[in-house]
Amino acid sequence: MSGDHGHGDSQVNSGSKGSDTHKHKDKHKDKEHRHKDHKKDKEREKLKHGNSEHKDHSEKKHRDKDKEKLKHSNGSSDKHKEKHKEKDKDKEKRREEKIKSSHVDKPKKEKENGYVRDTSPAAIKSEPEEDNGFYPSPQHNKTSKREYDDEEFEYKPKKVKTEHDKKAKKRKHEYEEDEEEDEDIKPKKKTKDKKVAEGKKAKKEEEEKWKWWEEERSTDGSKWRFLEHKGPVFAPPYERMPDKVKFYYDGKPMKLNAPAEEVATFFGKMLDHEYTTKDIFRKNFYKDWRKEMTSEEKSKITDLNKCNFSEMNDFFKAQSEARKQMSKGEKLKIKEENERLLQEYGFCIMDNHKERIGNFRIEPPGLFRGRGDHPKMGMLKRCIRPQDIIINCSKDSKHPKPPPGTKWKEVRHDNKVTWLASWTENIQGSIKYIMLNPSSRIKGEKDWQKYETARRLKKCVDRIRTQYREDWKSKEMRIRQRAVALYFIDKLALRAGNEKEEGETADTVGCCSLRVEHIKLYPKMDDQEYVVEFDFLGKDSIRYYNKIPVEKRVFKNLQLFLENKQPEDDLFDRLNTSILNKHLQELMDGLTAKVFRTYNASITLQQQLKELACPDDSLPAKVLSYNRANRAVAILCNHQRAPPKTFEKSMQNLQTKIDEKQNQLSAARKQLKAAKADHKASHDDKSKKILEMKRKAVQRIDEQLMKLQVQATDREENKQIALGTSKLNYLDPRISVAWCKKWVVPIEKIYNKTQREKFAWAIDMAEKDYEF
DNA sequence: CAGATCACTTAGAAGATAGTTA
DNA sequence: TAACTATCTTCTAAGTGATCTG
């Protein structure tokens, strides 16, 4: 099968839907969706698993689910907030208790032994700064490692592997549980003494590349033993517009008070953005803006359409222009200031190591930019103050100081969580966190673990597939639904699809929350039977559109699920993510719906890399193959991007370059020919030299041309596909590392600096024969 | 047991920077 | 040497899923 059933016809879903009175559907319709082309369908086709046919069973009818739920009014956002407030106090009390107890029932002695000694702030602070500043110095490093060796400390480095070989293996197996072996354990069996003997610099480097993956993991559920940081960086306070920058109402200049002006500038900044043309955005903005106005302003300003923010907009444009035009010196100064801030606030100390913080800046106030048709777009995101922030750190660390004259909301010491600070955001009432960078131990370990879980799924996926196929025949509706949903999750890499509160967010769905209106069944379509067409908005309101032939039994089940339902009813009315995950948990420890995405993504990459392997390819061609494999995954996971605005142009530029190069090549070839003739005639050294030169030139140009052509292909195929997300979140980096090693491709061709930092563990541990 | 809450991962867009070219 | 553009980095929204709670 192939992609020829793709869609020049993106309206396919408007056919038989009959009445258009369902709000969900309407919402979808005025959206512009990003479409994918045939390629994608084709790729998907390739990627699916085998199938076979079974006979179908009849089934008892299911009851309709209570639809009232879907219909309650949603004008209750204020009520909602009140609720939040009231509950706040309660919540905090509860939490306090929780933390207290978690501290109490911890074996105190061990803990204190653990870190008072090892990670006292003083020990780290006293590190000589010249030592590149970032990392604890070698001396410290060594000391702490030695102390690590004391019994009962859990983060035992394995550098002393010779002595702790058993433990080393134990940990490995804990994770991998693979039939694999020891050969994985690398020969870094340096002895301590040897290390001491090594130069300071060497040791420094080693610390720079702390190999947390060679150490033991904590087993007691605590995420750290010691945590010290300086708290977040706050957004600078609002600066008034210069007087010359005027706001006009109804054509007349009007001076706004600071709060109203600030909010106005948020809007003014965005004037070029499509958001500001959307009704909901404008309505929400206007409503929140008015809250900042004085009563005088309120009575004057009664219509957003009469507001003119264009001078503000010009001002910001000029400002950013000016920034670009700044002299080198000025730019450097800013850079240095940023660097200083990063040094001071961008790192924390967690268990002996200086680790990079992911987002140490508090989100500045502004207008909420929800994705898709978000009902709250345009609302004011309020400024976060110290008294909104909860700090999390070690009791015995130097606590971060709030800015002068302010207080933190709370300082707590919860080592069951990984965040350093948190606050509650005012749009959805959700909690935001400050956490560590992906290169940190705490993130890396989790990431590694994620791929190990996916590898465990690999071992039992056949069994699970057999089982859900069996379940398609179940007498119970809920089991059939569960089985069909799981099939979609497995085959199509759909997300789980938690329920969401209606009216609070954009209307998007995942597998379990699919509605009748999101699929269409075609018993026959062209040369295929039992085709299901999916058309819905997924995470970030990215459209998922796909037509796939399914097994007859699945098809019949779907027909059954659709019986007597309205378009806005749930397709799987007897299923939700928690039911599904509970079931999965029983099938394999740690299995949840999202593991399938990870598994299928990684296994696809591995397969594709094998298939596309071509040993004789040039380096760029190999990289292209890799990108193609990556792309297959991105397509599977539906990772899309808006085609870059300059795409067409940049494609053209590239083509021009190619043409030029081609001309160059033919010119060089001519010259080579001439040189050959020359040499034949004279047979002297000089002509020989020239001949060689020309020959090399041709070769060089030819390579350059190839490279350009490959680049063009790659870019074209990438037009609306985003590779980054899968590379960063779904593909076991060890597959890529192994591939690089096998084909002698420098890892830099695949991962940039940030990515190499994130995947340092994989780069260090994967050998060329690594199997996912 | 359903809904709320919390912590954490996954996501595309925007913004910043680096590299290239006119 | 500015302008352009490709790539990297940051930002923060939007998911998942575990746990708590009434």
Question: Top keywords for this entry?
Answer:
772 residues; alpha+beta; Arc Repressor Mutant, subunit A; DNA Topoisomerase I, domain 2; Topoisomerase I, Chain A, domain 3; four-stranded mixed sheet; 49% helix; DNA-binding; DNA topoisomerase I; topoisomerase; biological rhythms; isomerase
What is this structure, in a nutshell?
It is built from 27 helices and 15 strands. It is α+β, with helices and mostly antiparallel strands and about 775 residues long. Helix 11 (about 260-270) packs antiparallel against helix 12 (about 280-290), helix 21 (about 620-635) packs parallel to helix 23 and helix 22 packs antiparallel against helix 23.
Which sequence of strands runs across the widest sheet? 10-9-11-12
Question: How helix-rich are the residues, as a percent range?
Answer: 40-55%
Shape: globular
What's the rounded overall pLDDT mean? 78
Structural class: alpha+beta
Q: End-to-end distance, in Å?
A: 28 Å
Assign the CATH architecture of the domain at 604-765.
Orthogonal Bundle
Structural notes for this entry:
It is a single chain. This protein is of the alpha+beta class and about 775 residues long. Among the domains are: about 245-325, Orthogonal Bundle (Arc Repressor Mutant, subunit A), CATH 1.10.10.41; about 330-440, DNA Topoisomerase I, domain 2 (Beta Complex), CATH 2.170.11.10; about 445-595, Topoisomerase I, Chain A, domain 3, CATH 3.90.15.10; about 605-765, Orthogonal Bundle (Topoisomerase I, Chain A, domain 4), CATH 1.10.132. Helix content is about 50%, strand content about 10%. The protein contains 27 helices and 15 strands. It has a four-stranded mixed β-sheet, with no helix packed on it. A three-stranded antiparallel β-sheet has the order 1-5-6. The chain has a three-stranded antiparallel β-sheet with strand order 3-2-4. A hairpin with a 6-residue loop joins strand 11 (about 420-425) and strand 12 (about 430-435). The chain starts with about 20 loop residues before the first helix and ends in a 7-residue tail after the last helix. The relative contact order is 0.10. It binds a DNA duplex (22 and 22 nucleotides) through helix 4, strand 12, helix 16, helix 19 and helix 22.
